[in-house]
Fold this protein.
Amino acid sequence: MGRYVSAMNESPETLLPLRDAVERATGRRPGVSTVMRWCQKPNRYGIKLRSRKLGGLRLTSIQAVEEYIDRTTAAADGAAMNVSTSRQIERAHHAAMRELDEAGI
């Protein structure tokens, strides 16, 4: 995820307080304990909301909320989805960049 910045520089990966990110992604403002549970415990489909902790504040992004909703919906509907973590995606990106560097591209 991105960095914690003001809403004026907002992008889908901008880190926001949990309830703010959910509200911007869905138009709804769930209780703090609900969103904390989404981050800390996998739901019945084994999916958790990606988040980061900065000091005493837990943050997430609009994109992470949308991914959580999409993956949960797909699992509930029985559809297979890509379950790559952000760390796996980052590793694949770095491997591809190394490969391009080695090829001189």
